[in-house]
Amino acid sequence: MARGRPAYEYTEAEDKSMRLGFLLIAAGLLSLLGLGCCWLRPALQERGGGGPANCTVLAVRQLGERFACTFSCGAACRGTARYPCLQVLVRTSRSDSPALLHEDERQLRTNPKCSYIPPCARDDQENSENVTYKQKYWKEKVGSQPFTCYFNQHLRPDDVMLRRTHDETVLLHCFLWPLVTFLVGVLIVVLTICAKSLAVRAEAIKKKKHL
């Protein structure tokens, strides 16, 4: 007669459950490590030492220099156009030195010389009109009215942002989902071990009753 499987050994289903739990734990830890090194640390560096301030426009000007941008006109249609460089110089409530305003961190990294990158159109004239419209907006609609801006005095004292890309919500999700993955993995492992422990105890009690 074939010998029965020992009660303390995991069944195939329990073994798969344990593997899934450990896989989720590893995925959560690796996600936290990867996001921390590749995304979260630069985001915190951009936020560290800075914060919101009140900005006032000092000057709005177009430079003679033009920059290239890439437009798309279909699945296999791409080309290059050019746009003029608009600079908006502001003074912040935390510093008397003029600073260059940017739309956000992404725009700052793409073109640190300019304050605005228009949606890239195929026609250079349309790009110029978009930049001119933005120039009139800062001159006529904003003018000398103070507005909220963001800066980092340690990393980029000469640049300020109109809005931040890395806000609290993004940072929260950066932590939340890897942490949830890790906790779900831990929960699966713990529940599997507890269920197995209870099954072994129940089997032991059953054997004692038959003795």
From TrEMBL:
One of the Pfam families matching this protein, by short name: CaKB
A single cellular component GO annotation: voltage-gated potassium channel complex
Transmembrane regions listed in the UniProt entry: 20-40, 170-193
Listed GO biological process terms: detection of calcium ion
InterPro entries to which the protein is assigned, alphabetical: K_chnl_Ca-activ_BK_bsu (IPR003930)
Record's bilayer topology term: Multi-pass membrane protein
Compartments it resides in: Membrane
Record keywords: Glycoprotein, Ion channel, Ion transport, Membrane, Transmembrane, Transmembrane helix, Transport
Keyword RNA-binding: no
Gene Ontology molecular function: calcium-activated potassium channel activity; potassium channel regulator activity
Name of the protein in its database record: KCMB4 protein
Source organism (scientific name): Piaya cayana (Common squirrel cuckoo)
